[in-house]
Amino acid sequence: MIDEQEAINLLKKEKSPENLIKHSMTVSEVSTILVLALKERGYCVDLDLVKIGGLLHDIGRVKTHSALHGYLGGKLLRERGIDERIARIAERHVGGGISNEEAKKLGLPDGIYVPESLEEKIVCFADKIVEVNDVVPLEKTLDKLREELGYDHDVVKRIIGLKNELTRLLNCDPEEIVGRSIEEKR
């Protein structure tokens, strides 16, 4: 698996703008906070996979800013010989994942575009609470999605489900854990 510096170098090589690199670094940091909290509770989570997955989750944005960026990011990472698990993180982080029905409407090939592994879910959630390089309340992200897609859209429901799953595993609101950790670093 590539290391953090190699991941950042890949983002630069692919001509990622500076704000995308900052966003990716923050998603990686937030993801790391969640992994450490899960490990404290006894869960087996691959920290390196989540760190690198957080850094490379949005690499497809060098090609498009549409919902296809996850698929294109996964494809790009596979073409560069990057670990398949990292490619899946990129592919499955969009929204709260993309259902088979939505994937067909978007013209995506058959595949799984909803996060399945705990590592995929962590990066997907972290991405939803990071705006550029600031941690924001999930509710802010959900409000934007509700305005754009509708109050009860499946994307909104999947993201809420993701937060609920992490809350159950952590026995605490994941946003509180991230907030406390960031405050302690200041």
Structure notes:
By secondary structure, this protein is mainly alpha-helical. The protein has one domain (about 5-180): Orthogonal Bundle (Hypothetical protein af1432). It contains ten helices and two strands, in the order H-H-H-H-H-H-H-E-E-H-H-H. The protein has helices spanning about 5-15, 20-40, 45-55, 70-80, 85-90, 100-105, 120-130, 140-150, 155-170, 175-185; strands spanning about 130, 135. It has a two-stranded antiparallel ribbon with strand order 1-2. A hairpin with a 2-residue loop joins strand 1 and strand 2 (about 135). Helix 7 packs across helix 9 (about 155-170). The longest helix is centred in the N-terminal third of the chain and has 23 residues, at about 20-40. The mean pLDDT is about 95.
Keyword list:
mainly alpha, about 190 residues, globular, two-stranded antiparallel ribbon, 2 strands, Hypothetical protein af1432, 10 helices
Strand order of the largest sheet: 1-2
Report, as a whole number of angstroms, the end-to-end distance.
31 Å
CATH class: Mainly Alpha
CATH third-tier fold name: Hypothetical protein af1432
Written as H for each helix and E for each strand, in order along the chain, the element string is HHHHHHHEEHHH
Q: What is the total number of structural domains?
A: 1
- Work out the number of β strands: 2
Strand content: under 5%
What is the global morphology? globular
What is the structural class?
mainly alpha
Query: Sheet bearing the most strands, described?
Result: 2 strands, antiparallel
Helix content: 55-70%
Number of helices: 10
What's the architecture in CATH terms?
A: Orthogonal Bundle
| Residue-averaged pLDDT | 96
